[in-house]
Amino acid sequence: MKFLFAKIFFIVLFAGISNASENIRFIDINYIVNNSEVGKSLNKIVQNKSKKITTELNDMGKKIENKKNKIISQKNILKKDEYEKLIRDYDEEVKKYNNIRKKKNEDFNKFRVNSQKKIIETLNPIITAFMKKESVQILLQKEQIIFGDNKLDITEEILKIFNDKHKKIKFE
Description:
The protein is mainly α. It has one domain (21-165). Helices cover 73% and strands 5% of the residues. The protein has helices at residues 2-16, 29-35, 37-73, 80-134, 155-165, and strands spanning 24-27, 138-141.
């Protein structure tokens, strides 16, 4: 029902402004963020960070697993209170590992989101200047367009301008 309402809304919207189609354009921001030179370098950084985090966490996980197996193999050899102490230590180590894993994932996601935001913030003045220069009154996000003439898509033009102006952005 909501989808039908959305379709009707966009049909009415476009029917009402079809006379002003010269001043309407659409853009795919995600395409620009992912395919610009800056975006490609960010993707490489993100992949490297992801691999590094995965490797670190896998190594820690293997150490914990080895400790668990060692404790299990010593169950019948150790006294009950020594065995219980090893179990408590193991449980603490697992909690610590889970906290580290959670923190690393949060930091990684925060880095990725903030870096993409930085690209978009750098892109905004370019889009604004383009809109003023070309007298564009309405700019829509491509994902929200059901049908549209490719002549109204300014993604490639903005991508070219963005690549010319920004070869590199420093990401923290």
